[in-house]
Amino acid sequence: MSTRAVLEVIALDAEDAVAAQAGGADRLELVTDMAADGLTPSAGTFAAIRAAVDIPLRVMLRLADGFAAGEVDRLVDVALRLREQGADEFVLGFLGPDGGVDLDAVERVAGVLDGCRWTFHRAIDRAADRDALRKALDGMSGLDTYLTAGSADGVDDGIPTLLAEAARQGEPGYEQRILVGGGLRLEHVPRLLAAGLDGFHIGGAARPGGWEGPVSVGAVAEWRAVLDGV
């Protein structure tokens, strides 16, 4: 049975996607506007990336900066249009004013995904109570991953939380894969792998020239080699 760790790379366009796949990415997260921490790409961008690569694509469902759902009807419409284009994996996550999960918004959006697999993104790192959020979402159709740094301030501060949650894997609310991302560096990987964490998400780390530059095949390949123990 394979124990290969999952490497997910943020792609903004088809050029990024092709480079990430060539470097060894297992999956892409598709977003636009990283100045707003990643919003939903256009249907045209999704179609171009889908035509360019054959690895799984998770499409962000987020229309504005921040973690409030905003116009849920519009989110639902966007999700439906992407489904019509062939999107079958997604990323979403919404908090209410009190820092708790906006369960109504999540249920409405996830409900039109028709069982597609999806990631609850780093809104969990801004939640008032991570454990309560996980338990509120326990059993939600399609939810198979939490993207988290363990802290709103990034992996450096979040490692104790990541290790504690990894130790609870399989408990109610903790069945989903932990996808570590948010200030993740190669030096973090050995400790995280040793704790049984097997999902890693990179964005800026795949772009030596910064967000204005494209994904680097070599940078992704370096991550792939470290994760594979090469």
TrEMBL record:
Alphabetical list of Pfam families matching this protein: CutC
UniProt cross-references to SUPFAM superfamilies, sorted A to Z: CutC-like
Top-level division of the source organism's lineage: Bacteria
Example of a GO MF term: copper ion binding
UniProt cross-references to InterPro entries, sorted A to Z: CutC-like (IPR005627), CutC-like_dom_sf (IPR036822)
Family, similarity comment: Belongs to the CutC family.
Protein name: Copper homeostasis protein cutC homolog
Lineage: Bacteria, Bacillati, Actinomycetota, Actinomycetes, Kitasatosporales
